[in-house]
Design brief:
Rossmann fold; 3 domains; 6-stranded parallel beta sheet; 5-stranded parallel beta sheet; 14 helices; DNA-binding transcription factor activity
Length: 334
């Protein structure tokens, strides 16, 4: 393993000079700095993380708080994680992933232990008790999600209300007059998860605006849950011709259940789903989607965090505009 002494010897300087170049705590001539940096690059030297943290009072670690619950679709969630990790590496930061549902106490524990320089919070609720705690901490915090009152915290998310409206308007433009929403698991609504409430309100508003008969049902992510959800929807609306699916975990069993009931897509029923593009393409019928922009959201969250770590305090709420990608699962109603 290359040491700081090896770098010093290669650059023809003392070990303390190399340390000063790394920490930036003392002025070094530009020529010496270039020589040291060239040696670091040539030898492939990587500063010891613990020593670097002691020297700079920084850990070069971001904490991503992402509670793993039974109702969460892990593959979709990992798209956000991958984006956060990849963007953080561009800033020479690592990511500490915290998956226990510890609530406000968990935020305090992470902050008090100085394990990370900043906190990124996912699975945000409308009335989230963690928000006030995050505001009180000395380290920066950014929300991937939008609570009712974010205060002075920066937030980034898909505009889920606008996404729901795009789905309903797409079906209405194709002549569908009776549509239904297959929503997240009931516990997601009971918990007051922000994205679920915003999507439901957008769906209801757009249906009212376009004069579309609409119903919505929460759906447990299981085959039994899908069958029960579809039974209830068809009892409400026997002449249903359009489905909006806002529950990635049930897409496969829902398509299977529609097939078993001889409900052809899109001849008998059109389906539009909120899901990553790559998950929509690998279906028996390619799905019309409003894609989840996990890469853009994760990147934006890290960029907001790094600005705050650099001392730039400019809180913002950034809701990404949805786009709709038409495919073969939706068609004009004849």
């Amino acid at each position: 393993m290359v040491s700081i002494a090896d770098v010093a010897r290669d650059a023809g300087v003392s070990s303390s000079t190399v340390s000063y170049v790394l920490s930036g705590k003392r002025s070094i001539s530009s020529e010496t700095q270039r020589r040291v940096e060239a040696s670091i690059h040539r030898l492939g030297y990587h500063p010891h993380a613990g020593a670097r943290a002691l020297a700079s009072s920084r850990t070069s670690v971001l904490a991503l708080i992402m509670p793993l619950r039974a109702d969460i679709d892990v593959p979709v969630l990992m798209g956000f994680v991958n984006s956060v990790v990849t963007t953080a590496r561009n800033y020479d930061y690592d990511v500490l992933l915290l998956t226990n549902d510890e609530g406000p106490a968990g935020l305090r524990r992470v902050a008090d232990s100085a394990m990370a320089d900043a906190l990124l919070l996912m699975d945000v609720e409308e009335e989230d008790p963690r928000v006030r705690v995050l505001q009180s901490l000395s380290c920066p915090g950014v929300l991937i999600g939008l609570p009712n009152d974010p205060g002075d915290l920066s937030c980034v998310d898909l505009d889920f209300s606008a996404a729901a409206k795009r789905c309903v308007r797409h079906l209405a433009d194709l002549g569908h007059e009776r549509v239904a929403l297959v929503g997240p698991s009931p516990v997601v609504y009971e918990r007051g998860t922000s994205f679920a409430g915003r999507f439901l309100r957008g769906f209801t508003a757009a249906a009212r605006e376009r004069g579309v008969h609409a119903t919505s049902r929460a759906c447990v992510p299981s085959y039994e849950g899908v069958r029960d959800c579809l039974d209830r929807i068809l009892t409400d609306q026997p002449e249903l011709t359009g489905l909006v699916v806002h529950n990635e975990a049930v897409i496969a069993p829902l398509l299977s259940e529609l097939h078993s009931r001889d409900m052809r897509i899109p001849e008998d029923i059109s389906v539009v789903a909120v899901t990553p593009d790559e998950m929509a393409a690998n279906r028996p019928v390619p799905l019309t989607t409003v894609p989840l922009p996990s890469e853009d959201i994760g990147r934006s969250a890290v960029e907001m965090t790094m600005r705050e770590l650099q001392g730039v305090r400019s809180p913002e709420i950034r809701l990404l505009s949805p786009r709709l990608t038409p495919a073969r699962s939706t068609a004009r109603r004849v």
